Amino acid sequence: MKRLILSVLTVFIAAVGFEVRAEGKNVQLTSLDWPPYTSEGLANQGASAAVAKEAFAAMGYTLEVKFYPWKRAVALAKNDPAYDGYFPEYYAKELEDDFILSEPMGSGPLGFAQRKNHQIDWSALPDLAKYRIGVVSGYVNTAEFDDMVANKQLNASEAGDDVKNLMKLVSDRIDLAVVDKNVMKYLLSTEASLKSAADAIEFNPTLLEDKKLYICFKKGPRGEELAKVFSEGLKKIDVDKIMQGYF
Length: 247
Fold this sequence. Notes:
Blueprint: H1 2-24, E1 26-31, H2 47-57, E2 62-67, H3 70-79, E3 85-89, E4 99-101, E5 107-115, E6 132-136, H4 143-150, E7 155-159, H5 162-170, E8 176-180, H6 181-190, H7 192-195, E9 201-203, E10 209-212, E11 214-218, H8 221-234, H9 239-244
């Protein structure tokens, strides 16, 4: 009987240990609908999600992504213990107060959408002081741009998402809309409310920056571990090849 009890206990302990190990290798991240980088409706949930999944898979981990509006995605990643972090994010120093940023997982061209009948020539941000600029609430852009907006050196107004921001541009409520070039291209070809305006909008040739994309892992031992795992996983995959399949 003792031998039987010991055998049962051994099996139980092994099962519990496997469950803990399996749970530890299941990564939970939040994100937003930001096609072609992240979207529930795309293969592997978008370019950035595909990169993240393959990098983790290369290290024996699985990734689950839950989609929310951007501000909620960030708040849940910061405050809800069910989540390990969020993505994709641009670098900003203040993020390091609450998160551990991964190695870059690709990049995207950040700049301005403009109307074709109102093209704007600029070389430095102060050149844009006289224009109305649309930004998306809660988005990090570039340090210089965000500082100038915060200090009222640029005339910026917020929209809830990229679609709403581009609609403001179409309706002449703003002169420029801050947007990733690939996001703009995707939305103009797929979003019903924007299709009719696709021929009227273009991407301004002067970039704000080619922005690197990151995962923000929650600070702590697990976040540190996952950042290391992800970094090693990135070395085992072809990030550019994966992302180009979506652009």
